[in-house]
Amino acid sequence: MARIRLEFLSITLPVLLLAFLLAREFDLKNVGDEGKYIQTIEQQLDLPTTCQTSHLTAFETANPSILLSTSPLDPFDAPKFSALNRTAGEQWAFDGTSASGRSGLLLGIYRDASYAFLGPGNFRVSLDVVWDNGTTFSTVDYLARSVVHVCENQVVGIWASAIDEYYVFQATRDSKHARVHIHTKEVTGSFAIHSTTPSRYPNGALVSDKVASTWNAPMLHWGEPIPAGGIEVDLTIQGSAFRWTGLGGHDRWWSGKGWLEILTKWEAVRLTAGPYALSFWQPTSRLNGVSYPSPFLTKHGVNVFSAQRNSVSETDNHILYRSAPAPRDGGSMHDPVGYEIELISPSVGKKWSFTLEYRNQEFAFDLGGGAGGSAYVGRVKGGEDGEEPYEGVFFIEHVDVESLTVPKLYVIVCEWYYQFRAKVLGRWDVSM
Ligand SMILES: *[C@@H]1O[C@H](CO)[C@@H](O)[C@H](O)[C@H]1NC(C)=O
Ligand SMILES: *[C@@H]1O[C@H](CO)[C@@H](O)[C@H](O)[C@H]1NC(C)=O
């Protein structure tokens, strides 16, 4: 007879306890509801009748092998899986930074079964914001239903639990415009992003490229429908106005396994300065230890630089990316202050440099043992070497979960998740 290993017990017990507590905490609705509210929400959106629809409920998973989209020609915002299995997940992410460099928001909308063991289902939505004065708000919601309509000119996603509890995104098929509507107990309103840049793939290929690849790192796919654009935010959060304009962006990730199992760390930067916009995403794979940089720079909306290398080269485009030194006058040496980014194109003999200075922290979490993550918004200065530097704003995120091994991870997730009431889980598992 097999004996139950102690290690196994120590994982199972907290998981079961947690699942129970969470189910209570989130007051899970009976997904046996008929979802009539979905129709009511749809009526407000004025949808065409000819859309292809994918309608899932929160505890639904399919047989193990599900179809994963890898075609660059599939619409960015259409579901990348035919259904969900036990480990697959995908994310629609939207972020914004105010023109002051002090306010920001980050919204992740998921279809993700990789944390189903926690109990509240597969449709997580996480929202982190920071106001100009540094006050932050974070929430994670679990919704009962997820409906995505892929229409001729737009993709519409509805994550909802009731007629007055939903998140909706609408993105045009050409990825020029995206709008998000939120209606929950704590947050109401909308924001809109208007792209000023071409959509792109991990290798820097542009949207029209039929041979582009969505492959980003082992087991991870990624596409960026909006590398940068203008954002208009008009939300009310716990009764406080959250209204500003600035820089916005939109990404899509999908993977057959949870992020913590396939990545050890990742970083993301989005910035604009004068005519320039830069988006930079770099995951490091747990499967092979390799990091996959992908800076993408546009000037006046035209791609002028992309790279897939982060070390010096005499021939290949590359990015050099490092922590900025602490200022000499005051400030703790341990507090992060910013970043310096250099983009170098040896073949055309050009170099662009950007100096990022943090203004406000959008979120931070510490998992112990060196694992954790943080995000900031702030002011940036830079441009091509020799040019008068332009000023602008940026969003930056760093997450490091390298020291977490998978069994240990589940124990930590459980304890930590309960302790912090899911506030930022949605960030570091940013999951798939
Ligand atoms: C779920 O589907 C994905 C994509 O086809 C696959 O990579 C993954 O291994 C599947 N998970 C399970 C538990 O079978
Ligand atoms: C910061 O601004 C928000 C939104 O106006 C407000 O709710 C909050 O009380 C302010 N916090 C402080 C510390 O002033």
TrEMBL record:
Signal peptide location: 1-23
A single GO molecular function term of this UniProt record: isomerase activity
Boundaries of every Diels-Alderase N-terminal domain copy: 79-254
Stretches assigned to the Diels-Alderase C-terminal domain: 258-399
InterPro entries assigned: DA_C (IPR054499), DA_N (IPR056402)
A Pfam family the protein falls into: DA_C
Keywords: Isomerase, Signal
Entry keyword annotation includes Signal: yes
Keyword Signal among UniProt keywords: yes
Sequence similarity: Belongs to the Diels-Alderase family.
Protein name, UniProt field: Genomic scaffold, ProqFM164S01
Organism, scientific name: Penicillium roqueforti (strain FM164)
Phylogenetic classification of the source organism: Eukaryota, Fungi, Dikarya, Ascomycota, Pezizomycotina
